[in-house]
Amino acid sequence: MRVICLQASPRKRGSTATVVGWIAEELGAAGHEVEVIDMVTRSVRACMACLACQRDPDELLCAVQDDGGAILATMAAADALVYATPLYGWSFTGHLKPLLDRHLALVTGFSDPAAHRSHLAGKRAGLVVTCGGPVGEGNTDLIGEEFARLTRFLLTETVEPLMIGGLTGPGALTDEHREQARAFAWRLVG
């Protein structure tokens, strides 16, 4: 199975990157092909809402010329996706947000349930969130809902998210967190 991990933490050795590394290690050892895309190093501009992407439901099109188009194509060619981010303002980091807006290019016919199509339809998608505060209502509930709505729009099969709270940095990660990452990896690949 080909797995793409969108890693959106600005800290190359931070908690989110560490957890993504554990997931990639687990899946790689089991023979899965894993690619981690460091969103901090990629140039992805905002969606222009030009709707060029809506012209042909069979083609993945985007008028914005930057790294975003290639990332979207890589996602469409994958079997499973991981969206990994530290929690910033109850949501994704700004390093991932422009690509999320550009996900419009992955979907056509969304205003008509009979015509709604996605280049990611049927793929498995999972969310990994690390944060300093608690997991749950008032902190991670909004990103969980945002991800649920995104995956419904994308017609993907959502796996139970991995959210790890109470972290003060990668040194606060424990063996239990590593086991949670391994379990998440296996949920992702089914």
**How many structurally independent domains?**
1
Separate helix tally: 5
Broad shape: globular
The profile of the biggest β sheet is:
6 strands, parallel
Any idea of the CATH class? Alpha Beta
Strand proportion, as a percent range, falls in 15-25%
- What average pLDDT do the residues reach? 97
Question: SSE string, helix = H, strand = E?
Answer: EHEHEHEEEHEEH
User: Helicity level, as a percent range?
Assistant: 25-40%
Oligomer: single chain
Terminal CA distance reads 10 Å
Q: What would you call the structural class?
A: alpha/beta
Radius of gyration, in angstroms, nearest whole number: 16 Å
CATH-assigned homologous superfamily? Flavodoxin domain
CATH topology call: Rossmann fold
Low-confidence stretches: none
CATH structural architecture: 3-Layer(aba) Sandwich
Number of strands: 8
Question: What does the model show?
Answer:
With 190 residues, this protein is α/β, with parallel strands linked by helices. The chain has a single domain (2-189), classed as Flavodoxin domain (Rossmann fold). It is built from 5 helices and 8 strands. The protein has helices at 15-29, 67-77, 97-101, 141-154, 175-189; strands at residues 2-7, 33-38, 80-86, 107-108, 117-118, 124-130, 157-158, 162-164. The strands form 2 sheets. Strands 1, 2, 3, 6, 7 and 8 form a 6-stranded parallel sheet that branches. The protein has a two-stranded antiparallel sheet with strand order 4-5. The longest helix has 15 residues, at 15-29. The mean pLDDT is 97.
